[in-house]
Structures are given as structure tokens and as C-alpha cells.
Amino acid sequence: MRNFTFSNPTKIIFGKGTIAKLGPEAARAGKTALLVYGGGSIKKNGVYETLTAALTANGVNFVEHSGVKPNPVLSHTREGINKARENNCSLVVAAGGGSVIDEAKAIAAGVKYDGDVWDFFCGKAEIKEALPLFTALTLPATGSEMNAGCVITDETAKHKYSAHGAALFPRVSALDPQTTLTLPRAQVANGAVDSLAHIIEGYFTTTDSDALVTEEVVHALARSIIASTNRILKDPSDYNARASMMWSATLALNGLAACGYGGTSFINHAIEHSLSALYDIAHGAGLAIVMPAWFKHHLAADGPARLEKFGAAVFGVKTAAETIQSFEDFFKKAGAPVRLSEANIPTSDIPRIAANAMGLIRQWGMPQEQSEIEKILRMAA
Ligand code: NZQ
Ligand code: ZN
Predict the structure, then answer these.
(1) 85 CA distance to ligand 2 centroid (A)?
(2) How many CB atoms lie within 10 A of CB 344?
(3) Which protein residue's CA is at the shortest distance from atom 46 of ligand 1?
(4) C-alpha 56 – ligand 2 centre gap (Å)
(5) What H or E segment, with its residue span, contains residue 368?
(6) Going from the N-terminus, what domains does the chain have, and what CATH number goes with each?
(7) What residue owns the CA closest to ligand 1's atom 20?
(8) Cα 223 to Cα 214: distance, rounded to the nearest angstrom
(9) With a threshold of 0.90, does the pTM exceed it?
């Protein structure tokens, strides 16, 4: 078990009716908020009404920055930074899924920086400070509500890159599982795939797997994500399954599930971000295509031991091949695509996808060459 530092300052307020509690929390940070949200789901499920009433009741004015798109883009992020500056916003409030929270984080950091916000994403500048951020999560998937990362796409250059910095941890996140009752089935699937992807990246690329507690954290989270999702698919109104899923997805990428693993790599994510950048595919859908192929590559390169251990603990199967099949079966059952063709991505594009992925692979300091990425993608054909 390797040395590690675990620091996570985000306060989580979890459960029914918790979004209103963001009002007094936000009031402690300032008087004018930039309120960031997406295409309108929060207006249909009551989150907008509850949140804005809580802000107003606590003396917090807000300026709206709506229209964040899934796979949030740089131009809209820059607009948000300008709006926050013009209105002297001293805090940011985000309501929605990972895309909304990520764009809100980039805005919060961008406001405090003299240069262009993309500098944080291409490694030109470090995030040193950000406006305080408060989030109302409505889609369990990314863990953005309790981590220090954000992902933005430069839609012109077609680069989907990430930025990180302790200043990006939300100050408070309210997680009300009732908000997830309105999720379309495809987003339930995307969230399940993404949260599983977050724990398997570390588990399968660790430099030290003799970290018993983290091994068991990963197994438990995987079992919970799969069991919760199966219950949600059967009965979308199952509150306790929604609640379990929401907390599992948060824990999957708040740092807990990688403690002691030493250096790990986010290779499936690096490849997926290229798919999202080029085809605007949902992150979870892209991962469901990449992961089975990457597992096959992992099996050939590193042998069956990790797949066998994971499969026995999570799926109750014996062989590495059965573990890969179990992942694929679960993704399919949830309704996610598992091959490039199912997302209408032609195999003739594989060199282009791999070339695009190399940008992130180099930035994240990973050793893979383009030929290896092409090989993995061919297994996803
Ligand atoms: O825009 P609205 O109208 O809100 O609709 C959204 C959007 O269309 C909808 N939705 C969200 N909550 C809903 C709802 N619809 C009905 N009821 C609700 N309760 O769902 C759609 C997708 O939302 P989005 O935020 O894009 O999904 P997700 O949470 O999966 O976020 C994906 C983004 O996060 C990034 C991904 O790359 C992608 O850009 N990631 C962020 C990470 C991080 N910050 O740590 C890590 C991840 O690996 C990931 O890369
Ligand atoms: Zn992810």
C-alpha cells in the first residue's frame, strides 16, 4: 500500500429536501451568485424553483447562465466568465449534472485568472484560486460534486481536456436523490457506466494492488452501482436505489477509491474523451464502447489476475473472459452501446480517434503510443 494524501473539503448535504439548504450556505459566501444550469431539466423537476427560492429567501441575488450543453464547450464557458465579471458575482451556484458542475468550476476559476481559461486545460497555467462553488446535483455519474476536476471541450479544435486544482472542490453540494427520478433511461445507463469506469481505472492500473481496504472499497462500490442500477431499471421510482446510486457515484471519484494505489492511469477516459470531442457522444456511452475493448487489451498484456479477482468479488464469476462478458452484459442491459458501430462511428475513423486521444495521453503523462490506442479501438469495432 503506497503513501497517499487524502483531502476532501466538500461538505455534502444528502437526502430528501436538501437543496433548499444551499440557501443559507451560499449566503455565507456572498450576495450575488452566478446561477449555472443546462437545457432546462431543472425547470421540469422543481429544482430551479426550490433553489432560486432558497437563494432569494437568504438574500442571495443571482444572475442566470443557462444553456450549458452536455460535453460543455469553451465558448459558453467564456461567456459565463464575462457574465460573472460584469455582474460582480462573488460565488457560483450550479444545478444539474457533471457538465453543468464542470462548466461552473471552469467559470469559478476563470473569473479569478487574467489569461484565457483554456490555459488551465492545456497545461499553460495552474488553478490557484476560484470563486466559491455550491452545487445541486441531479445526475449521479461524474463525482464532480465532490472532486477537484472539470472537463471542457474546445469545440473548434475538437479537444476535450481536463483541469484540476484544490480550489475547484465545491464548498457545499446538496444531493437529493428525488431529483434523479426524472432522469431519462439513457442517462441512468451513462451514470452507471461512468461511475464504474472511475473505480476500474485505478483498480486495473495500480502500481500496488496490495491495498486491501481500497480493493474492498472498489468491490463494494461496484456491487452497489450494479445492484442499484438494476433496481432502478426495474422500478424507476425506487427511492432507496436512487439514493444508493447517488452516493456510490460520488464516492467513486472523490479520491477514496484510489487511496494507496500509487500511480494509476485513466486510459479508458483518455480514449473516450476523444470520442466525445469528435462525435459529441455522451461520456458514459463512449466509455461503454471503450471499456470492454480495453479489458481485452489488458488481459492480453497483463494477464488474467486482476480481472479474475474483480469478477469473483463483483459478478461471482471465475474467469477473466467471464468478467469482461459480465461488464458488457451489464452495459447492454442498461442500454449503453458497446461497439463503435452502435454509435455510428466508422472504423475507418480509428486512426483519427487515436491521434486525438494522444493529446490527453501525453498531457496526463501516460506511456501509450498511437498504434496501441488504434489496436484497442479495433477491438471495439
Ligand atoms: O441540460 P439539462 O437540461 O440539465 O439536461 C441534462 C443533460 O441533457 C440531463 N439531466 C441531468 N439531470 C437530469 C437530467 N434530465 C432529467 N432529469 C434530471 N435529474 O442529462 C443530460 C446529461 O447531463 P450531463 O451533465 O452532460 O451528464 P453527466 O453528469 O454524465 O456529465 C458528463 C460530463 O462530465 C464529464 C464528462 O466528460 C462530460 O463532459 N466528466 C467530469 C468529471 C469530473 N468533473 O470529475 C469526470 C468524468 O470522468 C467526466 O469526464
Ligand atoms: Zn468518467
Answers:
(1) 30
(2) 9
(3) 142
(4) 34
(5) none
(6) 11-178 (3.40.50.1970), 184-379 (1.20.1090.10)
(7) 187
(8) 14
(9) yes
